[in-house]
């Protein structure tokens, strides 16, 4: 682990800076949209378009990385996203923001795929959960830092958007200066959705459900808290509490998943996430301290589901398939991320803002139920045998 962490340190530093900028932008866009009078549906669609851009990015990222290499592709994606950030402050229009948000999503599909492929290429089955957990700690630490930048100026200012742009540009420096060996270039080919489903149904179905829930939360939660009329500082603190919880859980939960059946861990955290979201429905409009505590608890659970499912899927892929698998997972995540905010925002408009957490609680209940069903179809002993078997043996193939 120490040697792997040293080898990945430039990547992790780049991730921290990159996500600090994107974390600021992710909360700033819906917050500014509410202040400009955008409707909940318009805010939800802007969030969905981000995932639509990511969806498109997943299709072309393997070809771009194959042509330019990991580092140059990373630089290109970050530079375009940084330029797009400035457009939000210049053009105050829901339609223009949809285009810009889609462009940022397109770029981040490439950035995430490159980073996750790099980490997975350096990890192995016995430390992958911890390595992805460490990556997510850095990810959410950067996002928490980005949230606090909201306190430096008004959401109506130009400086916050320009600050987000600057962070995305600075993320180029660690990878541009590294001498670390990049992962193997991806093999020529397209996304492998059917192959993923045959190999690990939890990977395919689970990541789609995670996209539905996470896309709704990140697109609409800032607007939800803003509409409680508690002030922008409470929005920042709520998101920060959630992100601090997200930064706390990934490593210990990832370590646990390296020891026991990962599916059982996915089941457990999904069930707890559902319970927390039900609590937000019941008492989420009360004291701010309760709101922050529930946000922290939500971060402890929802943040680890994606890396757990990613680790579960990566346990069964080839070395040169890292970028393709990362892109395939992102593709399915984005499908959920497109649909989730639209459905949740429509429910919020028709019934009330609290439907955001009703929607997400139902999603996590479905995920827990699906994982439980899969574990009954394939007991833990069989799954562990497949994990322990050498690559290429029959035990590595899915059970029909």
TrEMBL record:
MF GO annotations: transmembrane transporter activity
Transmembrane segments: 12-31, 43-61, 73-92, 98-119, 131-150, 156-175, 196-218, 230-253, 265-283, 289-309, 330-348, 354-373
Keywords on record: Membrane, Transmembrane, Transmembrane helix
InterPro entries in UniProt: MFS, MFS_dom, MFS_trans_sf, MFS_YcaD-like
PANTHER family hit by this protein: MFS TRANSPORTER (PTHR23521:SF3), TRANSPORTER MFS SUPERFAMILY (PTHR23521)
GO cellular component, one term: plasma membrane
Annotated SUPFAM superfamilies: MFS general substrate transporter (SSF103473)
Entry-linked Pfam families: MFS_1 (PF07690)
Source organism superkingdom: Bacteria
Domain Major facilitator superfamily (MFS) profile, residue spans: 199-400
Protein name: MFS family permease
Protein source organism: Chelatococcus caeni
């Amino acid at each position: 682990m120490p040697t792997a962490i040293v080898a990945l340190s430039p990547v992790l530093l780049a991730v921290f800076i990159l996500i600090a900028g994107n974390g600021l932008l992710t909360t700033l866009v819906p917050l500014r949209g509410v202040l400009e009078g955008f409707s909940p549906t318009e805010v939800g669609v802007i969030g969905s378009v981000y995932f639509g851009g990511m969806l498109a990015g997943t299709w072309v990222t393997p070809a771009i990385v194959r042509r330019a290499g990991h580092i140059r592709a990373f630089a290109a994606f970050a530079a375009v996203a940084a330029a797009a950030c400035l457009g939000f402050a210049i053009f105050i229009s829901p339609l223009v923001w949809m285009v810009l948000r889609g462009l940022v999503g397109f770029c981040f599909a490439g950035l995430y795929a490159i980073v996750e492929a790099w980490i997975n290429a350096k990890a192995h089955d016995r430390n992958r959960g911890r390595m992805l957990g460490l990556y997510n700690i850095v990810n959410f630490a950067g996002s928490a830092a980005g949230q606090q930048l909201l306190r430096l100026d008004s959401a109506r200012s130009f400086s916050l958007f320009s600050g987000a742009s600057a962070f995305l540009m600075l993320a180029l420096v660690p990878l541009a200066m590294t001498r670390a060996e990049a992962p193997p270039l991806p093999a020529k080919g397209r996304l492998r959705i059917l192959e993923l489903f045959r190999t690990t149904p939890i990977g395919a179905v689970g990541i789609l459900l995670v996209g539905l829930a996470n896309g709704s939360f990140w697109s609409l939660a800032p607007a939800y808290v803003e509409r409680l009329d508690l002030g922008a500082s409470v929005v920042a603190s709520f998101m920060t509490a959630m992100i601090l919880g997200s930064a706390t859980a990934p490593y210990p939960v990832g370590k646990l998943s390296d020891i026991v059946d990962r599916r059982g861990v996915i089941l457990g955290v999904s069930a707890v996430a559902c319970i927390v979201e039900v609590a937000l429905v019941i008492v989420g409009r009360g004291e701010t301290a309760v709101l922050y505590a529930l946000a922290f608890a939500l971060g402890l659970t929802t943040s680890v589901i994606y890396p757990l499912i990613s680790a579960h899927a990566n346990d069964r892929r080839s070395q040169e398939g890292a970028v393709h698998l990362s892109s395939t997972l992102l593709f399915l995540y984005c499908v959920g991320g497109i649909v989730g905010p639209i459905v949740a925002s429509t429910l919020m408009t028709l019934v009330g803002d609290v439907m955001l957490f009703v929607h997400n609680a139902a999603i996590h209940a479905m995920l827990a139920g699906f994982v439980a069903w899969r574990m009954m179809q394939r007991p833990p002993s069989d799954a562990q045998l497949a994990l322990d078997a050498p690559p290429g043996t029959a035990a590595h193939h899915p059970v029909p």
